[in-house]
Design brief:
Elements: H1 2-6, E1 12-16, E2 20-21, H2 26-31, E3 37-43, E4 56-57, E5 64-68, H3 69-75, H4 88-98, E6 103-112, H5 116-119, H6 123-144, H7 151-155
Parallel strand pairs: 3-6
Antiparallel strand pairs: 1-5, 2-6, 3-5, 4-6
Length: 161
């Protein structure tokens, strides 16, 4: 819903997880790229954030990305049936690829504190989130025949000639 609202006022949106820190020039770098979806890349220490970007890869990091309205209008919103979270980004990556778009990752570093939500909830809530994540992975496997991070997942993005 936030993206739908943002696109009423702009042709792009910068999306960040709640457990990341970005550089002062992150928006400038990402918005200057010609791609419809471009991400920065996660690092674990502040020292790593000083690196200047120099290359692109085809593995977007959905913890910090810029998405353009044109892509969103053609691919649609993230699938909220992946509740409470986990793998909705991989589902979106497959869907945008199948819609003819290419998502890229600029090696622009951002600090990702990693799984801060699950680290700061009660054990009961953590179990609920973990059950949801397991359910979502299974839903993804049923939908696409593989799990994210596997060789079979990578093959979803290869085009046979």
């Amino acid at each position: 819903m936030a993206l739908k609202h943002a696109f009423r006022y702009s042709d792009h949106a910068l999306v960040l997880n709640n457990d990341v820190e970005i550089r002062g020039d992150t928006y400038e770098w990402l918005s200057s790229q010609p791609f419809k979806l471009v991400s920065a890349i996660s690092v674990r220490t502040k020292e790593e954030m000083n690196k200047e970007p120099s290359s692109l890869s085809l593995s977007p990091d959905f913890s910090c990305f810029l998405i353009r309205k044109e892509l969103y209008e053609k691919v649609g919103p993230f699938d909220e049936s992946f509740f409470p979270a986990y793998v909705e980004d991989c589902d979106y990556h497959v869907r945008l690829h199948r819609a003819g778009f290419q998502a890229v990752c600029l090696d622009l570093p951002f600090l990702h504190h990693g799984a801060q939500t699950i680290k700061h909830v009660s054990p009961k809530e953590a179990r609920r989130i973990e059950r949801g994540a397991d359910r979502n992975r299974e839903m993804f496997r049923q939908r696409y025949g593989c799990l994210p991070g596997t060789e079979q997942y990578a093959k979803l993005f290869h085009v046979e000639q």
